[in-house]
Amino acid sequence: MKRIVKLLVIINVLFIQYVAASKSNLIDHPDSVYLFSYGSGNPAAGLQFAWSTDKKNWKLIGTGNGFLRCDYGPGGTQKKMFDPFLIYGADGIWHCIWSLNATEQIYAHAASENLIDWNRQSYSIVSKGSNFLRPGIKFNLDKKSYLVTYTDANGKFFAVSTTNFKRNEPATEISAGDYIPSVEVYLPLGKVSGQIHRVEWSVVDRLIKAYELRNFRNIVKEESSLQDTYRFAGLKPIEAKFVVDAENARPISNTLIGIFFEDLNYAADGGLYAELIQNRDFEYDLHDKFGRDKSWNHSHSWFSAGEGTSFIIDSMGPIHRNNLHYAVLKTGAHGGSLINSGYDGIALKKGESYNFSLFSKLLDRDKGKLKVRLIGSKGEVYAETLLTVTSGNWRNSKAVLTSNATIADAKLELQALQAGKLAVDLVSLFPQDTYKGRVNGLRADLAETIADIHPRFVRFPGGCLAHGDGINNIYRWKNTIGPLEARKPQRNIWHYHQSVGLGYFEYFQFCEDIGAAPLPVIAAGVPCQNSVDGGNGQQGGIPMAQMDEYIQDIIDLIEWANGGVNTKWGKVRAEAGHPKPFNLKYIGVGNEDLITDVFEERFTMIVNALKKVHPEIVVIGTSGPNFEGTDYREGWEIASRLKIPIVDEHCYNRAGWFINNQNFYDSYDRSKPKVYLGEYAATVPGKGANFESALSEAIYLTSLERNADVVSMTSYAPLLAREGHTQWNPDMIYFNNTEVKLTAAYQVQKLYGQNSGDQYLPASVTLSNNQDAVKNRVAISVVRDSNSKDLIIKFVNLLPVAVKVTTDLNNIVPIGEKITKTVLQGQLTDKNVSPFVTEAPLAEINSTELAPYSFTVLRAKTK
Ligand code: AHR
Fold this sequence. Notes:
- 19% of the residues lie in helices and 34% in strands.
- The longest helix is centred in the N-terminal third of the chain and has 21 residues.
- It is globular and about 95 Å long.
- The N terminus is likely disordered.
- Bound molecules: alpha-L-arabinofuranose.
- The site of alpha-L-arabinofuranose has 12 residues, from loops.
C-alpha cells in the first residue's frame, strides 16, 4: 500500500512538472535565455529584470524600470518593495512575494501570466518573527502548495506553507539550512540579489517591448513647446484640406462636457459656498490637520478685543450634538468683542446687503445688548446693527447689514455692550446676492463662471473627498442635509475642515439652477487607496455587518432626490424647500479605488442592490487612479462583468501625452461599458498649466468628440482653487475674495461646453506637411447640434505657423450670411487667453486661416 501511495505521489509530481514545463516559460527551448528578477536600491521602483545568455553578462531591461510596484499603505512613506522573490508556479503563473518594510509581520504577493500585467496584490500576516525580511519561495510538490521562507530582524528563520498567498497561515521556525536564499549576480549596476530563471526568448522579448513602449510614452509625454524652436525650425505655413463625410454622421453623447466639483483648495468653504465667516461653528479641530498646526483649533479665525475681555471654547451645552463647540465671550466692565477675520478678510461691496445670523445665550444675566459691526483694520465701521440677547436657551438672531464701502478685508465684530459671559455659535454672514438669490447659497461670480461652461452634469462632492482617508472619513450625504446646526462637520481629506454648509441639498439645487444633471459619487464601501486604517495594509472597508445600512443610505439618497413628498426621504427634501424631485439619474460608485478583494465585495453588493431596487439609475463604476495598470484593468473587468453602463477613468498627464495619445479611445471596445473621463488635466513641467496645456486639452477633446460614441462624459479636474490655499495645480478657475481668474483651460472647456453637438461628422485630413509632429498638432472636430441645427467646426493648431484651411462640407448647406467665429490665440506660455468672437462671412466655413497656436470654433446655421 505504502509503495502505491509513493508511486501516486511520484506520478503526481511528474504531472505537475510536466504541466509547469509545458506552459513554455521554463522549457529549455533552443532559444532559451536567462532572466534575472530583482529589486534595486530604490524600493519604490519595484520588480526589475535583466537577461543573459551565459549568466555572466547581463543586460538590464531598463534602469529602475519596475514591472510590478507595491501598493501597500500610503504613498510616500510606504508603497515599497524590498527583496522581491519571483517563482514560476506549477499553475503556469509567475508569483512574486516581497517584504514591505522593516517593521511589519506582513508579506505581499502578486501574480502574472506574462510578467507585464499583474493581478491585484494581497498581503498576508505571518504569525512568527519580529518582521518579514528577505523572502524565498519554492513549490512544495508533494503538498501542492508553496513554501515561503523568510528571516527576521533577529536573524531567525521561518516558513509558511500556502496555497494562495492570501490567507494568514501559521508560520514555523526553521533552520538556516531550510531557508530559500536568493542568488547574487553582477549586473552593470553592481552586485544585486534576485532569482535566475530559464525562459524562452519570447518572454524577454515581450518585456523589452513593454519597456520600450513605456519609454516611448514617457518621451512623447515630455514633448513641450520648449522644443518647438528646433523641432519646427524653418517650418512653413501649412495647408490643410478637410473633407467632411456627412453620410457617415453618427450619434454621439450630448453629455460630453460636465464639471467635477471637489472641496479641495478651499473650493467649498471659503470658495463657492458664499459664507463669509470662517470657522463659524467653532468646529475647526487640531485633528483636521493631524495636530501639525497648533493654530488650527476651535478658536481659529477668532480673536477677542477689549479690556478684561477673553473667550474660551466650551462644549457643555451645545446647540446640537453634531455641533458641540461654541465660544463663551467673557467681557470686562465696559463690554468687549469677539472678532472673526473671515477667509483672508471679508470682502464687502458698497450698498450691498448681507444677512447676518447667530445663535447666542447670556450665561450670567437676563438680558444684554450685542452690537454687530463690519469693521476695518483702523477702526472704520462699514455697517452695524444692535441685537438684544437673552439668557436661557440658545436663541437665533438675524439682521441685515448694508455696507457703506467696497473693501476687500473687513472683519465681523460681535461687541457685547455689558460685562458678563455670552455664548455664541453658528455666526454667519452671507451676501444677499448669492447665485440665483438662494438662502445658504453660492458665491454668485463663481457660480456664474461655472454655469457659463454649460456643463451637462456636475460630479460632486469629490474625488478623494468622497471616499475619505479612512472608514470614518467617508462622506455621508445624510450628515450634510437639514438645519445647519444639525449637520455634521468633518475633517477634510485635504487637511482642512468641511462645514458641510454646502451639502447635498445645495449641490442638487445648484445642478438644477445651472441645468446640469447631478452626479453624486458615493464611496464603494472603501476609503482612499492611501488610507492607513485598513486591514492588512490596504485601504480596508466598511465592516460587512454595516454594509446593509450603508447600502440603505444609498437607496435613501435616491428616495430623497426622486421620491414623492409622501415618501420618508422625499418628505425631508420637500421640507427643505424642494417638493419637486431633483431627477437624479446617475450615481458614481467609488473613486480611483485600489481594486482589491475588499473593494470588489463591497462594490458588487452596492451595484447589485442598486440594480435590484433602482434599475433606472445609471451607475458609474471606477477603474483606479490611472489609465493603465492593475487597477485600471481589473476595474474594467469588474465593470464589464457586472454590466455597469459607464466607467470612470482618470488621466492627469503632461501636455505631450495628450498631443500624442489622440488615438487612446479609438480602439476601445464599443460593446463594453461607456467611459466617463471623470478627471483629467494637462500639465507643463514645472509650470502648472498654460495655453500650451490648454491647447493640448483642446486637441485631445477633438479626439474625445470623435470617440463620443464610447466616451459619454468628461470633466476637467480640479475645478476651483483659492489663491493662497491651493493644494493642487493646475486648476481650472482660481479666485480670491474679489476676483475670479479664468485660465486658458477654462476657456477651452467653455468653448466645448457651449459648442457641443449630438452628431459627429467624420472628416478626412490632408496636410501639406506629413511629419508626425506636424500631423499631431492640427486637428478638426465637426459636430451638429440637432436642437439648433447648427454645424460646429472646431480647429486646433498647435504649430508655430499658420494653417490655411479649406473644408469641403459635401452636401451640408450652411445658411445665412454670417457665421460665428471664436478664436483663442496666444503665446504658449500665457496663463490666460480671452476668446475673440466675431461674425465672419459665411464663406469662412469653407476657407479660413488658423493662427499659430490657436483654437478656433466656427458655428453656422444649417437647413
Ligand atoms: O482632483 C484631485 C484628486 O485627484 C481627486 O480627489 C482624486 O480623485 C484624484 O486623485
